[in-house]
């Protein structure tokens, strides 16, 4: 009876918040805390962000905390840096993960996505209309997430691992505004021979981010436009479900391969995805990895399948290709990836990751 309850509880729990999210569809934005959906790690992004079933390293705290049970060594550290739009947007990720024992693991992760050195020219002219360049100030707009992750191997189903995240969100817009938020994620992975399956439920409790505006910095601008504003507001992030499956192949003594797919399911109305209804949208992703002697890796993946309207009024589908390579030796792993490859090269992103595992 207890096992049946444990199997049914996650489904009932998620359905409850799915229905709650549908009720809030009108007031909740579709793209809240979207910096948490960019992704982390060059290996993952080189595979199109397909990780929920196959992740087994220090980035698992982000992709699926249940994967922390498969850490290669007792201590695991990882760092990633990437830039978008000619270096304007900078994304950084760092994590530390450790095996507590043979059945459980713990990880701490930090994410930052921001634009720095933005010029504030509101005071460029003095009261006489003269230009004063020394009055220009600079500020940053940055989003932060702090994740504490825990994973444990199940005792009642072989190959099953369970994990959860507690995350704190901090968003800052210079001296103009700031926000704090809190949310929970839950994940599971199941291994059956060469097959791997995963499920990741993000923001299962619905994440609320409370914004506080600074009236001293913004009031003059709003008064010029004859608008009023509230100094406090709440931003809601609705639940999201990711289902994944992957399979590993040992082709020869030296060559191996992994093929995986994820289905990113949102419940906040129709999005520009391959499968979309008025309530649910499904964004599929596919990725692969070829390995040689567990030392050299070649990766690829496609995601972000969207429909665009051409100049002639006809629609066409486009996909986002991703590529990556990796080298591993003596616990050190260096990964490079090229993601967000588009017609506009300024939108492409080069991701660099370094990871180290040791006992």
From TrEMBL:
Keywords recorded for this protein, A-Z: Signal
Record's keyword annotation contains Signal: yes
Signal peptide: 1-23
Protein name: PorV/PorQ family protein
Organism of origin: Rufibacter quisquiliarum
The organism's taxonomic lineage, starting at the top: Bacteria, Pseudomonadati, Bacteroidota, Cytophagia, Cytophagales
């Amino acid at each position: 009876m207890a096992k049946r309850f444990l199997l049914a509880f996650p489904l009932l729990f998620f359905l409850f918040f799915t229905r709650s999210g549908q009720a809030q569809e009108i007031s909740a934005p579709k793209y809240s805390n979207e910096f948490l959906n960019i992704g982390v790690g060059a290996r993952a992004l080189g595979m199109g962000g397909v990780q929920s079933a196959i992740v087994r390293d220090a980035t698992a705290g982000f992709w699926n905390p249940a994967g922390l049970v498969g850490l290669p060594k007792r201590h695991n550290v990882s760092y990633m840096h990437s830039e978008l739009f000619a270096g304007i947007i900078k994304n950084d990720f760092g994590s530390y993960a450790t095996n507590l024992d043979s059945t459980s693991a713990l990880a701490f992760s930090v994410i930052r996505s921001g634009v720095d050195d933005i010029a504030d020219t509101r005071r460029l002219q003095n009261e006489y209309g003269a230009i004063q360049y020394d009055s220009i100030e600079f500020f940053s707009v940055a989003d932060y997430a702090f994740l504490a992750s825990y994973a444990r191997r199940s005792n009642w189903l072989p190959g099953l691992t369970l994990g959860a995240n507690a995350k704190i969100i901090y968003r800052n817009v210079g001296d103009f505004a700031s926000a704090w938020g809190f949310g929970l994620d839950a994940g599971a992975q199941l291994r059956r021979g060469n097959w791997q399956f995963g499920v990741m439920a993000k923001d299962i409790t619905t994440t609320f981010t409370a914004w506080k505006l600074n009236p001293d910095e913004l009031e003059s601008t709003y008064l010029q436009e004859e608008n009023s504003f509230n100094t406090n507001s709440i931003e809601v992030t609705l639940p999201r479900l990711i289902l994944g499956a992957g399979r590993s192949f040992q082709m020869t003594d030296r060559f191996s391969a992994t093929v995986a797919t994820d289905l990113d399911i949102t419940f906040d109305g129709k999005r520009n995805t391959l499968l979309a209804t008025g309530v649910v949208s499904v964004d599929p992703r596919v990725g692969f990895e070829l390995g040689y002697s567990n030392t050299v890796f070649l990766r690829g993946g496609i995601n972000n399948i969207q429909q665009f309207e051409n100049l002639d009024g006809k629609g066409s589908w486009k996909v986002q290709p991703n590529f990556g390579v990796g080298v591993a030796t003596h616990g050190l792993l260096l990964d490079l990836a090229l993601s967000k490859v588009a017609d506009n090269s300024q939108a492409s992103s080069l991701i660099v990751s370094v990871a180290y595992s040791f006992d």
